[in-house]
Give the backbone structure.
Amino acid sequence: MPIPISSADLPPVIRQRVDANHRALRERRPLPRDVVARLREQLRVAHTYHSNAIEGNTLTLKETRLILEQGVTIGGKSLREHLEATNNAQGFDWIWDHAKPALRIDHTTVRGLHEIVSRGILTSAGRYRTEQVWITGAAHIPPPALEVVPLLDALFAELRGIRDPVLRMTYGHHRLAFIHPFLDGNGRTARLAANLVLLSAGYPPVVLRVQDRGRYYRALDEADRGRYAALGGVLLRAVDESLTLYLAAVEPERALVPLKTLARRSPYSQEYLSLRARQGVLEAVKIGDVWYSSKPALDEYVTRQGRRT
């Protein structure tokens, strides 16, 4: 039976840009070691903060950075929240160090990632659930515990047949969340596994922001019904932003500039450019609460719009 996702589920404008930027990044490799180290740490902290915050962890981005970089204990925060930060960061380190071409996601990989993110938090860390679970606020009811292993076997076989890394990452991410193989920590495990797929295929890891949690969860709900367009858009947009961030770090002409600054030399307002950035039409990346783009990206957008008028 064919999988219910294809390239048609991905926004074409963003997909074309992602493919072009992925080729550009490959041509730039090997990247300078200091640049790679800086990007790794930046994404490690961002992924850890946002992935945990999506699940309800109340640590701020600054507090997460202090815990990971200085070993600081944050007053008023629980031991569990501290462990979620250090564990998720260790999971990020694991996928970064173990990613390799032709890597296959399997039971050992998934259970190993869960053991890392749940260490010291769950007594069942790294072990599949043996009871029924429910997802708070979701219509989806995960399959019975006895079906977990057969469903994962089928998923791993399906993933081996998906050649496109973005489709493989998107489908695997959703199916892991759908099967919900563990008592807790499924979302964190699925996001790490998705990034392992990307890293193994030569893409940078992505960060799914807590500010987009509602859209992300709605997209997962749509995928539960076999409709992958929304989730494909969410995840492809995250890939797009990570590629933009990487290329800005190695190509001076692609230096990131706040849209407020870029708008001054364009025929468009900051508000309009921010809208186009959110839609993925303008190549941009959001850092904190600010959208950034580059002069070449803005020039390309203005030229493209001019051709349409």
